[in-house]
Amino acid sequence: MMKKNILALMVAVVALAGCSEMFEPSVENNLTKDFMYKEASFAEGMIAVAYSQIPTNGYSFNEVATDDAVSNDPNNGYMKLATGQWSSNNYFAVDRWNQCYSAILYLNTLIEEADKVDWAENEHARELFTIRIRGEAYGLRALYYYYLLQSFGGWSDGELLGVPLILQQQDKKADFNLPRASYVATVSQIYADIEEAIKLLPEEYQDIDINAQPVPAKYVEMGIPATEVVTYNRVMGEKFRGRMNGLIATAVKAQTALLAASPAFLNGEGTRWNEAAVAAAGLIAKKGGVGGLSSTGGTWYNDMTVINSLDKGTNPPEILWRTSVGESNSLETNNYPPSLRGNGRVNPTQNLVDAFPAINGYPIGDVNANYNPANPYANRDPRLRKYILFNQSTFGPNSTVINIASGSTDDVINKETGKSTRTGYYLRKLMKESTNLDPNSAKTEKNYFARIRYTELYLIYAEAANEAYGPTGTAPGVSFSAYDVIKAIRIRAGITGGDAYLESVKADKAKMRDLIRNERRLELCFEGHRFWDLRRWKENLNVMARGIGVSNGTVDLGAEGLGVAVENRSFENYMYYGPIPLSETLKWSNLKQNTGW
Question: How far, in Å, CA of 339 to CA of 343, rounded?
């Protein structure tokens, strides 16, 4: 299940690229646990390992296993998973078991041992370091159990199960032959860890004015003198931005509650929808409510003025939690069209293109959308042009025209297997258009990965509030509804004409549910949500991935206008719930497998 001896810490691997914003000082060599009591950098290395293993530290592009995208790479793990090769022994790109449990074992040690570490000579600094490290460890442990629950929670012998709960330090004599806790117990443990994290951590890391502010009251109650402002700033100040804090922990609670309330799991039993709505609403309220929705949040990845000015872990208005800023052109190398020297790996589908409404907000299948199949990209939701490259789009540092329908160009459909597009579309979202892959005029831009965006939290609230209170109802003490949130998101997107479609569904929970799910699909596309969302919603996993054809040099949407078949999906119903790795169930007799695997 997990490595039995966590004391052989491979801390040297935590020379984390681009993490200088988060971790000081650097970590030490491989030594025994006892060494950390006298050498704080060794203990800091343990928390660094936990941060380095977060599954969402980069883009998964799991959309390739859904109706949103395919890949032109024949070795892509998600493509293999989606086309019938997923089994408990073939995990491809979604094996989180060892990754998460390995981090949890480090975190358990820190929770129990942090008070023994000589963090500082100053007594109060030492106590504050202990408080913060334990708070981070609780918050990160909750996060890892959330990812485990998302991946492995499921039904076995008629019982809804979570994952084994390991909450203490383990040594080589520990008994790892543990049963899975119930789903409800796993959720409760995540909540308990989040409560501890919120109790110990500041909402945000920031310096306080030595002349104007005392140490925050909750730390004074823990024994820190109100006058120890310099010490507080040393331990809880802005230099630690980017690490787990109280706001992030609350967001993890919202994510967990949303997952637990979803149809594949508790289906709204108890108070889960309400819990998700309340947790998300609290964070949204701190942003100023619906009015706090960032005007540039839909293109956060391409606002280079903001990205280039980030320092000391500061966040743009759209971002709650992100990785450190680095420089890389790997996204562009993988996904630029061939004419711009890219490999065109992730190919959006016609299915996703059709999910973007008309500019007046109506789905394109509605007569009020005035959709013209002969000119399919005209008068559409502006997000379509921002997120997807289609025929005759202009893109790149020199505004290159992307000619997908001309057989003489590099970008044409399937001109070269494993390089050009299979669907007739290329990925635009997340790309830095000023990045130049031409070796004679190469240019690389700064970038980061957004772990949690505020737009996700607005969408969590909308989904949960609609289920708990209806489209126009509100959570207790909250002034905004699901309808209000979706209206704000669609106004930001550029929907015009008063959004008559939204107005037509605002009294219908089921229709609003469909709209909210579609808005989530569009706003969060290619950020690693779709694979998990389809499963928690128990939606059809076997929708054919479709693209365009080319007929006489023009785009062809097929006889029915739905696009041409590109790739079948092959999922069984039991695959709403992922398998426990076969190697683990073979080792541990008490570890039940999810039904069907």
Answer: 9
